[in-house]
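user: can you give me the structure for this one chain? tokens are fine.
assistant: on it. calling the predictor now.
[tool input]
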Amino acid sequence: MGIVEDVADELATQSLEIINATGDDAFVAKVAEAIGGSSQTMEEAYLTAVRVRRAEQRARKLLNNLQAQIPKKLAAPGND
């Protein structure tokens, strides 16, 4: 990645940690506004990184849930 994407991803990761701890989704808009005042390119990269990281969180949660069900399915009667 380039510097813009690297910094945007770092900011997105830190932002999502705060959002997950506080539940304040408006935090993303506040950070984006602060960034956008100096660099529209950085703002767009940040918002993209937030979307990507949120999608990753949802996908990992789903995969973990599905993976947790595998032993139950293997142990269920009739799976001989």
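assistant: here you go. The mean pLDDT is 91. Helices lie at 3-22, 26-36, 40-75.
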